[in-house]
Design brief:
With 314 residues, the chain is α+β, with helices and mostly antiparallel strands. The chain folds into two domains: 118 residues, 2-Layer Sandwich (Beta-Lactamase), CATH 3.30.450.20; 165 residues, 2-Layer Sandwich (Alpha-Beta Plaits), CATH 3.30.70.270. The protein contains eleven helices and 13 strands. Strand 11, helix 11 and strand 12 form a beta-alpha-beta unit.
């Protein structure tokens, strides 16, 4: 017993240990606490008499006791040291406190424990997680703003060109065709002149919503500028594209501007094995111009032998 006390006396500098900003205790070969510094009473609200002579298990939660018995002690027996263990202890008032533990054993069987209160660390970690989530949300919002039209929430011109280019390149590689459709609201200037720009914006917004709902998730729908919309139908042949345009006229005719229903002219083109976006856009733009020039409220199909009228809506 005297030798044991001598070992303890040589291991403990009371003044130094009591001034450390962390908890320190020592357990013997029976895993009973034989020393604890003042941190346990001043910061963790334990009375020394409630700890000295008790098993180290007394300060840990059930889960931490299991970890202590199944991992920490076996590691000590093998390595003599165990660092940066994340455990949960219970203070003198029964409150759970996250802690970081460093433990080292000596040849005499004594185990030296150093406890660091991790409450502030965990709080800071949570704040960092929240800050990261906020930044991710803001980044997503900025990405959305950069790629969508503010009024209609459809793809904007730049994003449409970018995504359409990729879609057309993929179609060429996979030997599929895409349909490119350009529509322009007929006499839209009169809507703004007669009913005002707020009504014009409402019409564009409503039409944008309807176009998005009407199209498939794989299709690309954009407000390409002003009252002009551009739609790319993936993996679509000419027959299906023509049917889509016919239904599109019906859909557009359900939107009102003031007391009148709007109408639109539509240009359509189908990709070929060597198509690129620039070429297809020039073709569909020419088809739309032809629809406008030949009376509006109709669809014109571009083909390599000339532009062909598809239908004229009443």
């Amino acid at each position: 017993m005297k030798d044991k006390q001598t070992t303890l006396d040589s291991a403990i500098s009371t003044y130094t240990l009591n001034n450390l900003p962390n908890g320190v205790f020592i357990t013997d070969v029976s895993k009973d606490i034989v020393y604890c510094n003042d941190y346990f009473s001043t910061e963790l609200e334990w009375e020394p008499d409630a700890l000295i002579g008790k098993s180290a298990d007394i300060i840990f939660t059930l889960a931490s006791k299991v970890f202590y018995q199944t991992y920490l002690i076996p590691t000590l027996l093998h390595e003599k040291i165990c660092e940066e263990m994340q455990l949960t202890m219970i203070n003198g008032k029964g409150i759970r406190i996250p802690i970081t533990v460093n433990v080292k054993s000596d040849n005499a069987g004594l185990i030296y424990w150093s406890f660091f209160n991790a409450t502030k660390r965990d709080k800071l970690y949570e704040e960092l997680i929240q800050a990261r989530e906020t930044l991710e949300q803001q980044a997503e919002q900025l990405k959305l703003l950069a790629s969508t039209d503010e009024l209609t929430t459809l793809l904007n011109r730049r994003e449409m060109k970018y995504r359409s280019t990729l879609a057309i390149e993929l179609a060429v590689r996979s030997h599929h065709s895409v349909a490119l459709i350009q529509l322009d609201i007929d006499h839209f200037k009169k809507v703004n002149d007669v009913y005002g720009h707020p009504e014009g914006d409402r019409v564009l917004k409503e039409l944008g919503i309807r176009l998005k709902e009407f199209s498939r998730k794989t299709d690309l729908v954009s407000r390409f500028g002003g009252e002009e919309f551009l739609i790319l139908l993936n993996d679509t042949n000419q027959q299906d594209a023509i049917l889509f345009c016919q239904r599109l006229h019906q859909l557009i005719g359900e939107v009102k501007a003031g007391e009148n229903y709007i109408k639109a002219s539509i240009g359509l083109t189908i990709s070929t094995p060597d198509s690129i976006f620039k070429t297809l856009y020039a073709e569909v733009d020419a088809a739309l111009y032809k629809a406008k020039e030949s009376g509006r409220n109709k669809t014109e199909l571009y083909n390599r032998t000339g532009i062909k009228n598809i239908n004229s809506m009443p």
